[in-house]
Every structure is written in C-alpha cells, then in structure tokens.
Specification:
323 residues; five-stranded antiparallel beta sheet; 7 helices; 12 strands
C-alpha cells in the first residue's frame, strides 16, 4: 500500500469500521451488499494495519454510532421486500472536491433513498482548501468567478514565493522569511476578505448559502466524530432528506431541518490573530478560516483549515459515552 499520512490512515480505518458495523448489525435484519471498490479496499487495508487493541477501539466507536443511527433511520433496517437490497459503499475522496463530504453511503435504489456518513477521527475541520495564483476560489466554491483585481493583488506575493522556491531548489524554509504572518498571510487574507465581500454584494442572497453548501456539504449527512471515550453524532439535515419514516415505522428521535443562511453579516479577524478570519452568516452560522503553510518549506500556495464555529441551534448533536 502506498504511504498514507497517519491522519488519513486513521480516518480511512474509521470509515471501514463504520461500514463493517453497518454490515454486521443489519445482515440479520435485511438484505445487505457491500460495494468492494478501490476506496473500500484502501479503507480495509488501513484498518487492518492497526493492532488488535486499536481495531477494537475503532469497532467499539463504530458500533455505538451505528446502533444510534439505526434508531434515527428506519429505512436502514426495513426493506419493501427481499429484492430491496441495502447497498453499503465507501466514497472516493474526489467527491469532496465537488462539495459532497460523505465518506460512507447506505443506498436503497428501489426506495430511491440514501444516507451518507462523514467519518471524522478526533478532528472537526470541515475543509482544507487552498489559495494560490491559479485557484479561482469564487468559481470553485460558489460558482461565481473571482475578479481580476483579486488576482492582481495576490499575484506578486505568490510569484515571490515561487521565485524563492525555485532559487533554493525547494529547500528554503518559511522560518527564513522572518515575520511572514505580516508580509504574506495578512495581505492574502485581506485580498480574500475583500473578494468574498464583493462576491456577496454582487450576488446578494446566494453566496452565503453556497458557501455553507460547499464547506459543510451539498448533500444531507450525519457526521460521526470518534473522540476519546466518546463518539459524537451531528445531523446536517439541510434539505430534509434525513430521519424519514418507513411506512408506519417512525424514527425514535426527531431531527429538525437546518436553515441555510441567506446573508453574509461580517468578515473580521479573530481577536489577536493574523492568521484567522471569522465569517458570520445569518441563521446562526459562523465559520473560521485559518491560513497556514502546509509544509515547512516555502511553496507558492497556502492552505485553509476551515472550521464550523457555530451552527443553528436546531443542529442535532448527540454524545455517546463509551466509558
């Protein structure tokens, strides 16, 4: 297996544990099949690379989450008849690039129904997007192109970084630049802030919703976060496709639909920070954008660590203690 970063390996192993827990729990209740795709094989290899104790912890977290999700989603365990097969699969990472953050899918084609799970291992970041000379974040995230003014503003900074990288044969480190937070991060963040505000002004009422759909996910999903001695489940019911009944069988708990924002309220720097912008939207959404260099060596691009700071109070969240 090619070398996989530890965090990615952990995440893939958890995806496999979740799918396998669904399979074991539902096999006795309904007809189930697993799509043994390349993403599935990769996740299985990652899971099998851990020792018995670690595998046990993944399985314990997964089984707690799966038992809870079965109570929320009656269609997982209820088919119309024997040919109504529940299909389980692990999704390719490429889907995340087009705004679908789901890792594990459970599909019933005959019912034209599916739910997805976003599996997180000890982290809550929603996206890791990049900025560079040739990344049109407006087009990619929102469907509206960035202006020439934006690219004119960021180009000299990224060009200089590219020059330094080439001259040092990709060996020069960021630490040699001195206070690069002030000289690199702040002007890039200022340009990003100004452009996001412009995009919102020119596409009033649309950008806020598109931003949340790109960052949080354009499909409804459950987020399952594996933590220390607990597993957290969040329900992002943005379009009302989660928590549906099956005939007369109703979910054991009710999940409200989340309201998407229709307004960008403000973009400000986080207090005492030169690296993080806080974007506040209507309906109780707030998202943080922390810019950083992904490598210790200089490169002509920067990465965002994007986190959901607050969500509408109707966001369904449940903590399951494993202790």
């Amino acid at each position: 297996m090619p070398t996989i970063a530890k965090q990615t390996q952990n995440g893939k192993a958890f995806e496999y544990a979740l799918l396998n827990s669904f399979l074991e729990r539902l096999l006795v209740l309904t007809s189930v099949t697993v799509v043994e795709s390349e993403p599935y094989k990769t996740a299985k290899k990652c899971f099998e690379s851990f020792n018995k104790t670690e595998k046990g912890l993944y399985n314990l977290n997964a089984s707690f989450a799966v038992n809870f999700l079965i109570d929320l989603e009656p269609r997982l365990s209820n088919g119309i008849y024997k040919n109504d097969v529940l299909q389980l699969e692990i999704v390719s990472d490429k889907q995340g690039q087009i705004g679908d953050v789901r890792d594990v899918l459970a599909i019933r084609s005959l019912q034209k129904w599916e739910i997805g799970i976003s599996a997180k291992n000890n982290h809550r970041a929603v996206k890791h997007s990049r900025l560079s000379n040739d990344i049109n974040f407006g087009e990619k995230w929102l469907g509206f192109s960035c202006s020439q003014n934006y690219f004119t503003e960021i180009k000299p900074i990224f060009d200089e970084l590219a020059k330094l990288r080439t001259a040092s044969k990709a060996t020069q480190k960021w630490s040699t630049l001195g206070d690069y937070h002030t000289t690199v991060y702040v002007p890039i963040l200022n340009a990003f802030k100004k452009e996001l505000e412009r995009l919102d002004t020119e596409n009033r009422g649309v950008v806020a919703q598109k931003l949340v759909e790109y960052l949080i996910g354009n499909q409804d999903f459950y987020k399952v976060i594996k933590g220390k001695n607990k597993v957290e489940i969040q329900a992002y019911n943005l379009h009302g496709t989660l928590n549906l009944p099956f005939k007369t069988v109703k979910p054991k708990l009710k999940i409200q639909k989340l309201k998407l924002p229709n307004r960008l309220i403000e973009i400000i720097y986080q207090e005492n920070s030169q690296t993080t912008l806080l974007v506040t939207l209507s309906e109780g959404w707030q998202i943080s954008f922390r810019i950083h260099n992904a490598s210790s060596r200089i490169e002509p691009s920067l990465k965002f660590d994007i986190n959901l700071v607050s969500a509408p109070h109707t966001l369904f969240t449940n903590h399951l203690s494993l202790a």
